[in-house]
Each structure stands twice: as structure tokens, then as C-alpha cells.
Recover the amino acids of this structure.
């Protein structure tokens, strides 16, 4: 019979796999941009920016859900405002993906999410692995954004 701790924490191994596999579309966009490959009107930069915006929206949805599910959370209102504001900024980044500001705006949103989560993360010991993975994956995503900015605006 599982302990109460085991029953309240989802499979972190599955989460880890999915989180790291989630970086692959960023790498695909980088590769497409590098080699100049496109499928119809979808080039590497657009694929990258669209996926970046989708994942950022997903992360903001986690904050929104957290704010809705924890009525007495001390940062509840901030989480609701931040989740909406960051999601909208991400969509601005997507709309401006060809402009020099679009990809850096998405990059800054990911940095903000990581820093805010470092500040807000709960002290539940069983979630330590979850936040460690989230931080590592965010660093990989930020590195991909930096590479895409360099590729996109250096003639690549």
C-alpha cells in the first residue's frame, strides 16, 4: 500500500522524461534555422517561437491553476496577474518573432518564470527533484533561445 506521500506526488520519473523531451522541438527549430529548412511557410524561427510561446503559456497555466487551487496562498493575486501578463508577453514575442525584440522577449519571460519559481517554490521535500528538473530544463531552453537569437540575427 503506498504511503500518503507517494500517493500525493505524481511520478517524477515520468515528469523528468517529459520535461527533457520537451526541449527537442526547440532543438528542431534551431536545426531548421541552421540548415535553412522549412515546411511550407513554417521555418525554424517560426516553429521555435510558436513552440516557445505554447510552453510559456503552459507554464503560466500552472501558475493560474496553482492560484485557483490554493485559496490562501500568500502570492495568489500576484500569481494570477503574473500568469496573465507573462502569457500575453509571450504572445507578443510570437507576433514579433521576425523582429529583433521577439525572441529576446520570450527568453526574458523564461528567465522571469525560473527566478519567480525559485522564490515561490514550496518547501515540500518530495518536490525538490521536480524543481531541480524544472530549473535545468529552463536553463536548456534559455540556451536554445540565445542560440536562436544568434542564428536568426547573424545571417543564419
Amino acid at each position: 500500500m503506498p504511503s500518503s506521500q507517494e500517493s500525493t506526488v505524481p511520478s517524477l520519473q515520468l515528469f523528468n522524461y517529459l520535461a527533457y523531451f520537451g526541449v527537442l522541438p526547440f532543438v528542431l527549430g534551431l536545426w531548421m534555422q541552421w540548415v535553412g529548412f522549412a515546411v511550407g511557410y513554417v521555418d525554424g524561427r517560426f516553429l521555435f517561437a510558436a513552440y516557445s510561446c505554447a510552453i510559456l503559456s503552459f507554464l503560466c497555466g500552472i501558475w493560474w491553476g496553482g492560484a485557483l487551487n490554493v485559496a490562501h496562498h500568500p502570492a495568489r493575486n500576484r500569481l494570477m496577474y503574473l500568469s496573465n501578463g507573462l502569457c500575453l508577453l509571450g504572445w507578443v514575442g510570437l507576433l514579433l518573432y521576425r523582429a529583433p525584440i521577439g525572441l529576446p522577449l520570450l527568453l526574458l519571460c523564461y528567465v522571469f518564470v525560473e527566478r519567480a519559481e525559485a522564490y515561490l517554490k514550496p518547501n515540500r521535500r518530495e518536490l525538490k527533484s521536480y524543481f531541480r528538473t524544472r530549473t535545468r530544463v529552463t536553463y536548456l531552453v534559455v540556451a536554445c533561445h540565445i542560440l536562436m537569437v544568434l542564428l536568426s540575427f547573424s545571417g543564419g
Summary: Confidence is low (pLDDT under 50) at residues 1-7. The radius of gyration is 17 Å.
